[in-house]
């Protein structure tokens, strides 16, 4: 009997194929959005975690505290400088590398070509601290960093864009208002979990960057790479103590710098992704509601169109519940179909996005099952009122209906 | 009257309220015996369809008693009347009322689905009923592929596939030409004679009514004549 009803429903959906598809659009889009978002979201989270574990959980990030907008902060704003880098370098024990970094987005030009890239001024320890390898040529030297020479290394994206398969070594590129000679290329790192191309960068001595690009003597970030097996908590405490002492901060005053380890940053990033997924989920929910109303609408049309059929069925002995079930099953089959199309579309979108952003494609069986159950439920809930209306028809009136 | 299948005693059916009230039936008494073939005639609006709807347990009287198979059918609820219709009553309508885009066999099977009969048995019963109305070989045609007379035969097959006690037919030949009408009447008469099927049939035409055992005449919601040779019989 139920199988009979499902067959009947499928037949009715097939007969009105065009109408059915249009009705389903809301559900399809809603489910596709949910599936795509959740799949991309969990891929991003996985990628972020992977990126961060590549950086190593033993990396500390030191930055100057930003002035508090409310003006109640108990510290004097002071940006990082060479002094801070030097004192950390001198006083820290059990660390592999201490490296300063300043960067900004700058236009770079080679011949007739130009592009915007992340230009980073740093020192020799950067390669260890941030896990960069040199794929061609050589790294920066102490002399170059000290002397502020116009040399640079370029990332793979820029290498390919400017030189194709040609040799970039000893070529001169313009970086903003200055220029530098390419001494090497960096090994590829690919995209971050947020879709940022890490290989679109130019690396130059920090002093060169400060003098010729930034026009100041500040350092944005100091990275401290702790030795394997050493405690990062201890390292954070050490860095804090050294900085406070060197900067002469009174015990009653707060730090005017922040020291974070990567696990903290990973958590912050993951929760940002989760929040974004949740928000997009809400948008998708609204779209599902619209889809449900579409189903309700089309089922009302279907019941009206088939009033006479309902009359016939009632006359020859169908019970209210038979008619109710018939239309409920029809609505459910319809929205389930929309759900399945939506899942297909959503996974397709997520797959495309995953390969485009080079994040892992992470479809969740749970989420897919939830989408299936949810779309079936939408059909039942929104199909109930039209079905009830059909079931409650008076057979005599229904038979007279034209 | 012990073998009465259908009884009306002082049946009223009223529509509307107060001034605008219409009495479609105004105190009707009648009885239809098992195995009888009764024609119902009367001018338009005299209450023929209204009484047929009550006879067919599709409707209930506003007041008075409607007995069917000895049951006070007027007191039954919607679901109980649905069971009664499914088990004991077959319907044939003027406009055939077949499901469109559905084959003859599937149309005929329909009442059996609501009995919960297994598919194989249903199919066999439908084929048999279609053969009985002379439509063997047309089982897989849809109504659009059948003539009016053939569609009405499918409708009759659907009505008799459940082996009902009573067949209710409201102007079954109303849409058919004379030749086709007489063929349908021969079919109904045969079912009445050979299977003992009780038939209540509304018609406007005297020569169609003459197939019946007697003719009940309606006028203004009342019975003008019960159609017995002698009223007292
Ligand atoms: N649902 C209704 N609401 C109001 N009045 C109704 C309703 N159904 C029937 N009537 C009225 O009851 C009266 C009898 O109607 P009925 O359909 O029984 O006539 P009939 O004898 O079958 O006529 P016809 O030969 O035209 O089919 C008519 O006056 C009709 O207008
Ligand atoms: Mg009528």
UniProtKB/TrEMBL annotation, chain A:
Keywords: Cell membrane, Membrane, Transmembrane, Transmembrane helix. It is found in: Cell membrane. The chain crosses the membrane at residues 21-40, 279-303, 323-349, 361-385. It is a multi-pass membrane protein. Belongs to the ABC-4 integral membrane protein family. InterPro entries: ABC3_permease_C (IPR003838), MacB_PCD (IPR025857), Macrolide_Exporter_MacB (IPR050250). Its main location: membrane. Residues 20-241 form the MacB-like periplasmic core domain. This is ABC transporter permease. Residues 282-395 form the ABC3 transporter permease C-terminal domain.
UniProtKB/TrEMBL annotation, chain B:
Pfam families: ABC_tran. GO terms for molecular function: ATP binding. It comes from Tianweitania aestuarii. Transmembrane segments: none annotated. InterPro entries: AAA+_ATPase, ABC_transporter-like_ATP-bd, ABC_transporter-like_CS, MacB-like_ATP-bd, P-loop_NTPase. Coiled coil: none annotated. Gene3D superfamilies: P-loop containing nucleotide triphosphate hydrolases. The keyword Flavoprotein does not apply. PANTHER family: CELL DIVISION ATP-BINDING PROTEIN FTSE (PTHR42798:SF6), LIPOPROTEIN-RELEASING SYSTEM ATP-BINDING PROTEIN LOLD (PTHR42798). It comes from the Bacteria. Belongs to the ABC transporter superfamily. Residues 6-233 form the ABC transporter domain. This is ABC transporter ATP-binding protein.
């Amino acid at each position: 009997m139920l199988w009979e009803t499902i067959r009947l429903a499928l037949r009715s959906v097939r007969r009105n194929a065009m109408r059915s598809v249009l009705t389903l659009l809301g559900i399809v889009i809603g489910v596709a959005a949910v599936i795509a978002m959740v799949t991309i979201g969990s891929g991003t989270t996985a990628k972020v975690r992977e990126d961060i574990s590549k950086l190593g959980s033993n990396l500390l990030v030191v930055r100057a505290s930003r002035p508090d907008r409310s003006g109640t902060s108990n510290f004097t704003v002071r940006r990082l400088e060479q002094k801070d880098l030097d004192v950390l370098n001198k006083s820290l024990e059990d660390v592999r590398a201490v490296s300063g970094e300043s960067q900004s987005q700058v236009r770079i030009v080679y011949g007739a070509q130009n592009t915007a890239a992340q230009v980073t001024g740093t020192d020799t320890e950067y390669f260890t601290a941030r896990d960069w390898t040199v794929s061609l040529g050589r790294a920066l030297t102490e002399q170059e960093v000290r002397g502020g020479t116009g040399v640079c290394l370029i990332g793979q994206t820029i290498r390919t864009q400017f030189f194709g398969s040609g040799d970039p070594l000893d070529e001169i590129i313009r970086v903003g208002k200055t220029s530098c000679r390419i001494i090497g290329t960096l090994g590829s790192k690919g995209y971050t979990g947020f879709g940022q191309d890490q290989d679109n960068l130019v690396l130059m001595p920090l002093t060169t960057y400060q003098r010729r690009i930034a026009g100041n003597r500040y350092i944005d970030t100091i990275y401290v790479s702790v030795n394997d097996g050493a405690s990062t908590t201890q390292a954070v405490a050490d860095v804090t103590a050294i900085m406070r002492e060197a900067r002469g901060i009174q015990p009653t005053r707060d730090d005017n710098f922040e020291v974070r380890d990567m696990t903290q940053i990973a958590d912050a990033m993951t929760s940002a992704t989760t929040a974004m997924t949740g928000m997009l989920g809400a948008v998708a929910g609204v779209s599902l509601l619209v889809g449900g109303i579409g189903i309700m609408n089309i089922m009302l049309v279907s019941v009206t169109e088939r009033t006479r059929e309902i009359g016939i069925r009632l006359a020859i002995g169908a019970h209210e519940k038979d008619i109710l079930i018939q239309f409920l099953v029809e609505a459910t089959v319809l929205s389930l179909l929309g759900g399945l199309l939506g899942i297909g579309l959503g996974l397709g979108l997520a797959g495309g996005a995953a390969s485009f952003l080079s994040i892992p494609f992470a479809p969740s069986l749970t989420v897919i099952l939830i989408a299936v159950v949810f779309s079936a439920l939408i059909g039942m809930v929104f199909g109930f009122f039209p079905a009830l209306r059909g079931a409650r028809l008076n057979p005599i009136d229904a038979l007279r209906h034209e | 009257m012990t073998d009465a299948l259908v009884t009306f005693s002082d049946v009223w059916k009223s529509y509307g309220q107060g001034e605008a009230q219409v009495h479609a039936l105004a105190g009707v008494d009648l009885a239809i015996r098992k195995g009888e073939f009764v024609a119902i005639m009367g001018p338009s609006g005299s209450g023929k369809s209204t009484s047929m709807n009550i006879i067919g347990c599709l409707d209930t009287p506003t007041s008075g008693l409607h007995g069917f198979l000895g049951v006070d059918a007027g007191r039954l609820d919607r679901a109980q009347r649905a069971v009664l219709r499914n088990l004991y009553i077959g319907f044939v309508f003027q406009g055939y009322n077949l499901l469109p885009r559905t084959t003859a066999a599937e149309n005929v099977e329909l009442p059996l689905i609501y009995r919960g009969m297994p598919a194989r048995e249903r199919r066999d019963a439908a084929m048999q009923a279609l053969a009985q109305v002379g439509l063997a070989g047309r089982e897989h045609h849809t109504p659009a592929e059948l003539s009016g007379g053939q569609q009405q035969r499918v409708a009759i097959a659907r009505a008799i596939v459940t082996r009902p006690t009573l067949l209710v037919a409201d102007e079954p030949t109303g849409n058919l030409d004379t030749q086709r009408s007489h063929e349908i009447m021969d079919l109904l008469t045969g079912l009445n004679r050979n299977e003992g099927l009780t038939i209540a049939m509304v018609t406007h035409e005297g020569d169609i009514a003459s197939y019946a055992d007697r003719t009940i005449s309606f006028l203004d919601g009342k019975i003008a004549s019960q159609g017995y040779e002698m009223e007292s019989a």
